[in-house]
DNA sequence: TATGAATGAGCATTCATTCAT
DNA sequence: CATGAATGAATGCTCATTCAT
């Protein structure tokens, strides 16, 4: 099982009000994450969540006005945590300051970092991927984060690398797609599609980085 | 909208009994595909499907015993069509007979072919990806097709290429993951995440192939 | 199993139009009797009857306008056959002509005769008893037969016996109730409640007659 | 109408948990009893019951998981109450302690007692008789009560009377059948088949007892 | 704050009946 | 005559949400 304490931290830290969660709220969130991940939002019932959380049905609605608000309270802090903070802190250093192996170093940090995060929050990852398609609220939140924060920083970095002749000539959007496909493809296979295989995580991370690096290297 | 006639063909051809669908069945399938793709299986109601199909609700259940059977009747022929037939016909020729650029040629055929298929069946693709997680029946069907048909043939081809010194040293499973991540990452971005962007499909296909080719080439 | 041919005869002979049943009609009746007896009228579906009868659903409604008409076509001829004909033929002879042991003789003939009939038509008996409560049509038909035919003849016989000092002083209605309770109690136990016990029918019939005879004898 | 308060007591006292019923539950039970008795279980709809009970349909299912559970909650306490307690308390005293007219005394108590009970619970009696045939759960419950409690005690009493030379030579099972046929035949006629006749209950009870007594007396 | 009984709209499914073939 | 696809009202049951305690 994923360590739930870490997951709660994830959810806590980005709660809008930054308020500590009450014990009941924690129980509700834990139960909701497990059940949403297992059966999907639409097939989960609030009564089942209440039962698993050892809480009365009404209690859920005291903390979250609707079932959907409960979902959003789970997903958006995770999305922000999963995408944003990494870029905020690492892009500058890795790519701009340390010169030659900038991309590889960036990728390694990115992958290892997100890998750990996904490992600790696999059910949340599952929920995000499964529910994004159906909830415009989530898509908007994601686009906001992605288009306004990640993509521009990513592009800046890529342009920088291109100038140094380190990158294949390819539109930034395509490069970003390749990288994300490879990273997400790995994480999804590792934690969602086949979590029970005997994974040699270190090696697979290396392979993935090698693959991307060669795939994108200047010819 | 995707050309529904082609989609119906897709569904028809692989129906076990190879029987032509009645007009009402076609209407039901069309409506179900659209609605399932839009809101997801669990959030779609049979009454909505019936209304969109201009059919009485009872009529759905005359043709499909349950709502789930309707889903399966939609998804499994698609899954078979999407994965199986290509490999059956192309692997041998492309990889084993034509010597040097075997992999590239294979990838190009694979991608173009699946691209067209995904283009014609985007909503079906969406449904498969969205529902696989929740329906063991679908997973089983997929595993059957993937583990027993695709994976072995894929491996055989990769081993052949490795012997010829054309491939990076990496476990087959990892290579296959890289390739599929890149291909599916492209198709999903193209048809599901951002279908409304101005895509230059030819170029993107080329980029994707280049990326994979360089990523996997013998160093 | 009960001999269905005899049951069909039962149903045929009293059909209002006295017309022979077509083979399809026979199949439908046979199936309907079995299913009504097993699950009750309200829980039986015409589609199940059609399936068991190897007949299209529509065919049932060609012969019987509604499901209820099918029930009535099954029950009323049976009811008539079960109650009426015996009395018509036997009362006079047994009771009025043969002097001393009139009642016993009558009871013996009554019981043996109805016993055979019930044996051959156990499912029909079951249906009548189960459905009478819910269908006023059946009740009316029964009352007609019972109040207008059976009761008066029964009373006449009882009065005759009373005059001869052979019968306990008790209202006719009560006497008739005792007799019918005993007879029906036997038949219901024998064929409906516990048909699988090892019954010694001859003996049980004798016991039942003895019981009634002593119960009603002049003190 | 039967006095519903007494019926509720009947249902309450034997509820496993011996808990008082909430007012809504009472309304539901009252409505269900009336409707089941009138149209039979299979032809009664939960929406009709809810309407008659002045309760939302969902409320029924909060208290009784399924429609069938509602039926069982109605029938089994009644069955237990109807059969068991009497025998527990009376057999010993009546038959074994008071010597000569043991059987008559027993029958009188039995009949009067069950008569009052049936009078107060006529609709329940109706439901039991009508539904027993279709619900194995009810049959099992009945057999348990009858075979394990009533029949043995009955037999013991009959053997005791036989030893004293008070009883006709007849298998116990047959004797029991005669008695029950007569008693049930009376109650069913009185409360179900023809409740609207002008019954002189005292007299009819006496007749019935006389009938049984003479029918079973040592010759 | 927490509870859980109550609600009623909504759901998948069944079914008697009709009707074009 | 016989068929069986089509119907749509009705059914048992679920569930998010409310609210009195």
Describe the structure.
The structure is a homotetramer of 219-residue chains. Chain A has 219 residues and is mainly α. Chain A folds into two domains: 4-63, Homeodomain-like (Arc Repressor Mutant, subunit A, Orthogonal Bundle), CATH 1.10.10; 75-216, Tetracycline Repressor, domain 2, CATH 1.10.357. The first copy, chain A, has ten helices and no strands. The first copy, chain A, has helices spanning 4-14, 23-39, 46-52, 57-63, 67-97, 102-120, 122-132, 136-163, 172-193, 201-216. In chain A, helix 3 crosses helix 4 (57-63). The longest helix of chain A is centred in the middle third of the chain and has 31 residues, at 67-97. The mean pLDDT of chain A is 85. Chains in contact: A-B, C-D. The structure holds a DNA duplex (21 and 21 nucleotides).
Number of helices of chain A: 10
CATH architecture of the largest domain in chain A: Orthogonal Bundle
Q: What proportion of the residues of chain A is helical, as a percent range?
A: over 70%
Our Rg estimate of chain A from Cα atoms comes to: 19 Å
Mean pLDDT of chain A: 85
The ordered H/E elements of chain A are HHHHHHHHHH
GO molecular function (chains A, B, C, D): DNA binding
DNA-binding region (chains A, B, C, D): 45-64
Domain HTH tetR-type (chains A, B, C, D): 22-82
Transmembrane segments (chains A, B, C, D): 174-193
């Amino acid at each position: 099982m994923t360590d739930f304490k870490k997951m709660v931290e994830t959810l806590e830290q980005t709660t809008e009000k930054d308020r500590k969660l009450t014990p009941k709220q924690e129980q509700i969130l834990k139960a909701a994450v497990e059940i949403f991940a297992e059966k999907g939002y639409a097939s989960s019932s609030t009564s089942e969540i209440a039962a698993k959380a050892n809480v009365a049905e009404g209690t859920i609605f005291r903390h979250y006005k609707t079932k959907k608000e409960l979902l959003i309270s789970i997903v958006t802090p995770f999305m922000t945590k999963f995408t944003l903070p990494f870029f905020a802190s690492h892009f500058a250093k890795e790519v701009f300051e340390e010169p030659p192996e900038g991309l590889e170093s960036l990728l390694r940090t990115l992958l290892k970092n997100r890998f750990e995060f996904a490992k600790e929050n696999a059910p949340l990852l599952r929920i995000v991927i499964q529910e994004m398609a159906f909830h415009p609220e989530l898509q908007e939140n994601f686009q906001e984060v992605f288009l306004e924060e990640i993509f521009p920083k990513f592009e800046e970095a890529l342009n920088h690398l291109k100038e140094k002749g380190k990158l294949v000539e390819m539109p930034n959007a395509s490069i970003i797609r390749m990288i994300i496909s490879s990273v997400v493809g790995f994480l999804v296979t590792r934690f969602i599609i086949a979590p029970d295989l005997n994974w040699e995580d270190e090696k697979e991370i290396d392979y993935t980085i090698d693959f991307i690096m060669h795939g994108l290297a200047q010819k």
